[in-house]
Amino acid sequence: MLLILVDMNKMNHHYAVILSADVVGFSKLMEGDGEATVRALDECRQHFRRCVTVHHGQEFGSVGDSFMAEFSSPVEALRAASELQREVGDEAITKDKQPRLSLRVGLDAGDVISNDKGVFGDVVNAAARLQQLAKPDGIVLSESVHQQVHKLPGYQFHSLGKQHLKNILEPVRVFEVNRNPALVNWRRMYLVLSKYSVAAAVIAGIAFAAAFIFIYLESHQLGSSRVVRVQAEDSWGTTDSTSKSIAVLPLVSLGSDSAQNYLADSMTDVLTAELGQIKSLRVISRTSAKSYAGAKKRVPEIARELKADTIVEGSVHSLGDKVRITMQLIDGRTDEHLWSRSYHRDLADILTLQGEIARTIADEIHVTLTPQVSSRLTRDRSMDPEILRLWAVATNDLKSGDEDDYQQALTGFVEISSRDPYYAPAYAGMAQAYVLLAGWSGTQDPKHLLPLAKLAAEKAIQLDPGLANAHFSLASVYWADWRWEEANAEFRKGMDLSPSDSVGLVEYASFLTSTGRAAEAVTLATLAVDLDPVSSYTNNELGFALCALGRYEEALRVYEMSVRLDPDDGINRDLLAWIYYRMGEREKSLQIYEQQASQFEEASSFYYPYLANIYVSMGRTKDVRGLLTALERRSEHDYVPALTFAKIHTYLSEFETAIEWFVLAHVERDREMLWDWNYEDALFPDEIRQDPRIQSIIADLEQSRIEPEPLL
């Protein structure tokens, strides 16, 4: 009896999070190459122990291909599981590991009993059963863990409902961890891209298909009609008063299955883009044209509002692997039908048909095609219908203006590249998504995302030099790295290839404004507004350029228009407050800023320095401290630009701290510094201007101004 009491005293009851992992298909791997599998398992065990130690866990009960550990924190347990899977996957990529081990992980939390023999309890058994529900490279966790990690940045969770686990009496609500591979695993994407970009010079003719992106070798003869190597024209496109304008209204889906709407949306996008390559044709943005979907207005009214000479309408009806498309061209002034035709094709030939339709429309409105554009429109682009569906969904997500949707778009483009590694637009789409996520209002650190954008854009251009959006994305990467001449050259290439690309126009205008060429930016931004009049995005950039020129009243009218166009977008109200700030109407600015802060807990950090400056001018130092505290708290899980902190500390006259933040902002190559340097006299006050560290930054900023040149 005494012996039993002694053993009981050695036992320890405590709360723990249990991580249970095993190797998927281990027995089958052993049958194939047992020695290699054992070596891989040993290396996997080393990764496991490192991850457990780093995240303050304790290993116990690991046997064979199974691993177990306990943690005091659910967050640390989840991070350890994620890091373990990433490390094992990264090693397989960088070292060509064969066999590649896939882990599945289960997490549960609750009371356990431990002694010198191990850790025991229902929680341990439940974690092992949860692990069996996980997919390869997947993580499954119980509701008790989910309640404590569901707000953790970088993770999403999908409920699998209540599950009956073996030897567990009560059913358990289970959640699957749905980490976005294209965003969270940016390091793995970089490894794949950079590794196979280098290998291209060595291993000719080999193509690598990775889980996230396929990188084909530079010297490999692709032999696919989908890979088009068209050289961009050297001359800059011209637009004059005789240019004709056209709008493609959203094509109507006639199928009974609403899921087939993607086909009509995709065809609308592609046809708009195809026509947009024609330099003598002004093509209204799909964003503005889409606003007339289902509208009861007559064609002349729509044409007048969009300033379009001609209107394209059509319908799509798909049945199985066949599709019937009806198109018509209408005179915007007279409502006269200029041309109409029906097409019956295989679904796989849709993109090829789009080029044919674009050529026909150009002929009907008497527009001359350059040889380069004609060549692009006559190419064969047969495509797997599933890729077409994925493409439609991903491109639609890319246009949403929402960070979560950008992440979803990345997932879609990665999936497309895994199905068709020759499809250059998938890489261009990835590049666009990464650039958007790295934007000034994003929560992800640009230094993680922009290298991926560069690699993806370069891959797209390698496969098809005629993709305008790839050149625009590469230009944005160069701009973010303060490589201004290279950025300017890529922007011009993009504009030459697609002069009606309103998004590209806006980006180029923003670049010109930041490099001291606001007058030219107004020209481009005005054209972008003409092409996309109902978009607050295009209007906002025009406002920036006007503000840079000191034309505040005009900028105010533009920002007021943006709020009317999209009153629910907080950024539009931020910018309205900003222009009031620039105009010296601080009370109006303060009212909007504080309203924004009360409505949006995670509003853009862009406006914080301006709000801080207003508070300082009013003697409200305590409120400035509150802003700093909020930003510091946010920076623990989201990206906050160093320049934001630098400005606020400057307004507080905390100059040494401000200098340290300015140095970091310079290291980050913050693009907003360019704007501030060119248009804000007080970026560096006299108290810090002569500091050697600031002088070094100023020397770099002085190089940002590019000489004006003809644009259109």
Shape: globular
Kindly state the percentage of residues in helix.
40-55%
The oligomeric state of the chains shown is: single chain
Count of discrete alpha- or pi-helical segments spanning 4 or more residues: 32
Low-confidence stretches: 1-9, 180-242
Tell me about this structure:
The chain has 712 residues and is of the alpha+beta class. The chain has 32 helices and 16 strands. The strands form three sheets. Strands 1, 2, 3, 4, 5, 6, 7 and 8 form an eight-stranded mixed sheet that branches. Strands 11, 12, 13, 14, 15 and 16 form a six-stranded mixed sheet that branches. A two-stranded antiparallel sheet has the order 9-10. A hairpin with a 5-residue loop joins β15 and β16. α2 packs across α3, α9 crosses α12 and α14 packs antiparallel against α15. The longest helix is centred in the N-terminal third of the chain and has 21 residues. The radius of gyration is 29 Å and the shape is globular. The N terminus is likely disordered.
